[in-house]
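Thread: "does anyone have the structure for this chain?"

Original post by V.I.:
We have the sequence but no experimental structure in hand. Need at least a predicted one for the grant figures.
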Amino acid sequence: MGNFTLPVDNDQVIVLGIMSALELEAASELSMFLDNRFRAESHPEWFEDIRHYRISMNQPFSYKSPSDLRFILGEAVLEDSQIWHQIPKINQAWVNAAHTLRQKLNLLHHQQLAPNLQTLLQISTLFDQVTSGPGLEVSNWARAVQSRVKNILAGNYTKPEAEPAPVIPAAAEEVTKEYEEVIRQREKRPPWGSRWTGTKPSRKLTLDRQTQDIYDDNGVSVAEELGDLRDQVMAMWLRYFPLGGEVWVDPEDGAAMGYIKGTATMVGWFGAAPEDNSDTVRGFVLAHEYEFTGSDVKDLTLSINLANSTVEDSSEALTRLRQILEPATRLNITDFGDLFVPVSEGEPTRIMNLHKNVWFKGQLPG
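Reply from O.Q.:
Generated one for you, tokens below.
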């Protein structure tokens, strides 16, 4: 496999490249490992046999190559699969890691994983758990990435001045191109509560807590411009400015900016937010894992429940979840507050959008 590429800082290109290269290397090594095992059993057509079996069971099968990691991980967690019996040290922990890794890679392919060190640590840990059993060389790389990332995050690693920058894996090129437009749009209109990065909007409005109204520079109410969204926008802005305050609105798309503790911050929209009525999942997924218990949402990373971990009452959101989800359903949420059930293939579907005050305190921007 050659020299390991390791991060030296939070460079997005390097992070994306390492994640993508880990996927390709793991896929190559795992498929070769399986091919050798099957050939030793005089079963060289194992991929075609699996394909015919799935089709005979009326199950979808869209994979074209045995070196597709999604195929390998998807099959390996099924007890009726021939692959299940070929990978050593498969247990429930391995199955859980393989299932989670497959979902994370699906998010990566849809530009929904945050390209940062926290994500890289999570991904490299999963690769280590999945590839250590068969004794693949990529597991050494995954462990080296884990160690380096932990040291960087803990402040225990300083990039040597004489050390050359890490080589960007070839796999990064395609991945970063797909992420470029997503990142540009985020910089233009970041998640609510995040730092505003564009120019200051031209339309100045004043939010008045006493009158529960919004005024322009001439003191004329503009709340009627919002129509049915008046109360929704007022409530959102008052979360950021409980005593009232000034908000600047971009006249082109209605994006709103305000100063919070002196920092220009995205505080929502003057009107409907883009894709408000869509089921599209926006933003990058938080590094936490969640589960709907049947009555509450549990943060599996911190072992805390939503009902007693929010700034505002979360009972309305929990009631909605009880109506549509089964107990033990896994959940993810993005930094845009879009909640969804993770999937191993295809685009996930947004369940609802949640403000930072009705989600676990301190996890969403703002």
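V.I.: this helps a lot. Residues 111 and 183 are 9 Å apart (CA to CA).
O.Q.: and The mean pLDDT is 91.
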